[in-house]
Amino acid sequence: MARTRIDKRVTMRLVYIDFWSSLKLSFLVSLCVAAVTILVALLGWSVLDKTGIITSARVLFTDIGGDRATDLFAGLTFQGVLSFTLVVALLELIVVTALGAVFAALFNLASRVTGGARVKFANKD
Q1: Which of 22, 24, 63, 119 has a Cα-to-Cα distance from 30 of 20 to 30 A?
Q2: What sign results for the dihedral spanned by CA atoms 25, 27, 30, 35?
Q3: What are phi and psi of 17, to 5 degrees?
Q4: What average pLDDT score do residues 13-41 get?
Q5: Where do the structural domains in the chain lie, given as residue ranges?
Q6: At how many degrees (to 10) do helices 53-65 and 19-50 cross?
Q7: DSSP readout, 48-101?
């Protein structure tokens, strides 16, 4: 006896997103993005420093611009890059977390007007 496949589809409406759940989830996502940002900056600095590209660029700009170019590269050290990266990662963490909560609140307000978003689920055996 052959068994027939029955695909059951259910349509539901998403009308509410919990504010605190969205805040926690957006914090975790932004924490991962901040960690990746720091890692990429440190690996990028390491590669550029080990290959000598930073030294070559410093020499090139010093030849072109003279003493003014040395001021440009004065802050381009490992500590300077690390400090800047940490500040950017911290700001990204705060902004993305806040935006996740704001978007959840905006969705909740918009779903009151529109009735929510239709979502279809399928059960395949």
Answers
A1: 119
A2: negative
A3: -120, 125
A4: 96
A5: 27-123
A6: 70
A7: HHHTTHHHHHHHHHHHHHTHHHHHHTTT-SHHHHHHHHHHHHHHHHHHHHHHHH
